[in-house]
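Dear colleague,

Following up on yesterday's call, I've attached the two folding results inline so they're easy to grep. Please treat them as preliminary; we haven't cross-checked anything against experimental data yet. The first protein's sequence and structure tokens come first.
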Amino acid sequence: MSFGPNDMSISTHAGRAVRYSFYIAGTVAFALIAVAVVRVSSFFSQPSIASSKASFQINAPELTRLSSTANAARFSGGWQNVLQYGQVYDRNTDFTLVINMPSSPDTPVVRDYSSEMSSLRPLLRTAYTGMGRATTYYDLETRFGPVRAANFQINSDGQIKLCVSYLSRFDTTAVYLKGWYCEASGARPNFHTLACMIDRISVKGVLPTAAAQTFFEERMKRSPRCTAEPVSQTTDTRPQRPPRRL
């Protein structure tokens, strides 16, 4: 069977169409990935609006004697409030709370503990040292919902402080918390004390999203319920069955 000039031309155009379709599909896929990356990293870009006023406070006796600072910022991905009590480079206790309120609260996001803690390093401004195999994880319970916490230590100009980082596991996408708590130099932080500090968060203004406002107002009506339990890994203790013969 022979092909004429027209048949060859059609074949050439068809091949080009197939290649271009792959190029277009790849471009679209790359664009979607880029959008996803921008959304995930939007809280770590430069804020468009910032102020020294925060919409939250913590009525915990452990923090009342410490100097405090607060700021609020508007990012492309939502709003962020930061409360800091004491200073991480002091020999005294320090506590930092970061409250994020996404502008699209209906979008589900799975938050990785290590990634969220890495984003706190600019706030720490010091050497962050993980505990490796010695890392202890705890499940905290508060009136707002569950919180995961883990121990770590920092080296601030030669001074070692033992600390606890934390990330909320609330049953809402309207808000999430993270931060750290360091005791005085040489002292080991108490996970239960941290849970009770988080339990005493209160709102002192109008929040930027109705979903976040509703969440906090509803949870603040609950009774205090701060507890802390070590994370236990469940295992299958049943005896192993022999393989089935075919």
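Below is the second protein, in the same order (sequence, then structure):
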Amino acid sequence: MDLDANPSAEPGSKASELEALFRFLGRIQQDQGLRDQLNEVITAPDVVAIGAAHGFQFQAATLLGLFERCNEAPLARQGLMDEKLIRVYLQRERLQAP
């Protein structure tokens, strides 16, 4: 189990899902292995699968919604998913505001 994951967060809660997603995105810059994994994929469902493998639970629809709010395309070109996710992460304060 990943220590950064929060198993006590209420499943399905939008706030806890966003929190888990942003904790996952926050790891990308420090974890080269995670970056490499993410750069092999081009879709949000693929990112969700990688997040789940690392102990983070969030829905593809949540990530796609963030992409839309950040004016990011729903797909990444091969090798660029990490950069797309980092751009979303850097806007987390604005995105988490009510």
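For the second protein, one point worth flagging: Confidence is low (pLDDT under 50) at residues 1-11.

Best wishes,
A.L.
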